[in-house]
């Protein structure tokens, strides 16, 4: 019996819309989770994030275990209280950051040993330690198994090695996590771009049994087309009655194409990262607000939006803020982008419920390319 009920309200082809019910609130799917890496969605207050319609945010095990430390977060009442967010939080396992950020990391059967990117101090992250940090110290609602994310491109032998280690670590993660009523554990499918490895990974995960399932090892440089090729078969390998989470994705067009192929949940740093650099995502594609064409443009980014950042400030003013290197520019564009991603998932939920997702997908792609 899974920890959280997942009710699928409607399907349209492989696309589905529903609700993942947690003690801290419902997560409407398809869902986009803003990334709060270090206990903050960069440049935004939690009230602003909540007002965009976000049902859940993501926290990062690797960053929080190094600073301020997971033990300190626990002493301060857990991650929800620490950052003033009372809705669900998903924490990633820390595995991806260990591979990508730490200067030196060594993977063994037992654990990954690494040097902190902050001060070079040595740390050990095992499946058991990852469960302790996420579930007991940070107190997240959705916990991710520790896995090994193999860099792309990968030879099949290397991809298999990472997939098999991830499966064994998944079993250890489940044993350490135990049975919990108010927290859920997700397993992670691996296998790079090899269909046979993805199938084997899925079979192993099903055997262990998780509350939800993630698709890992994508959005690591393989490109949109190669990612879609994997998504043509990978989501359907996972249990249809549990949520499917595509990790680290992505651009708006990636979200739409993944939902079309049966994915329910997403996270990505893109909205806030691009917002800090002057890029705004809109229904007509991405724009660079620093371009001269917006110097006297009195229109807002989206007059129809409920978000003040999208609706109440002219493009001319936003451009001025970036040109003057005023912090408010980064705040407003980050806020607008998070609101746009939430509006996009809301529009997808409505399109699926009304049986018009194929038309929505086609129209969205056309507008994004034209923008």
Describe this structure in words.
There is one protein chain. This protein is α/β, with parallel strands linked by helices and 371 residues long. It has 15 helices and 16 strands. It has helices spanning 46-51, 61-66, 70-75, 79-83, 95-101, 127-138, 156-177, 195-208, 224-231, 252-260, 270-276, 308-311, 315-323, 327-353, 357-370, and strands at 6-12, 15-22, 25-29, 31-36, 57-60, 89-92, 105-107, 112-115, 122-125, 142-144, 184-189, 212-215, 244-246, 265-268, 279-282, 285-288. An eight-stranded parallel β-barrel has the order 4-5-6-10-11-12-13-14, surrounded by five helices. Strands 1-2-3 form a three-stranded antiparallel β-sheet. A three-stranded antiparallel β-sheet has the order 7-8-9. α10 (252-260) packs parallel to α14 (327-353) and α11 runs antiparallel to α14. 50% of the residues are buried.
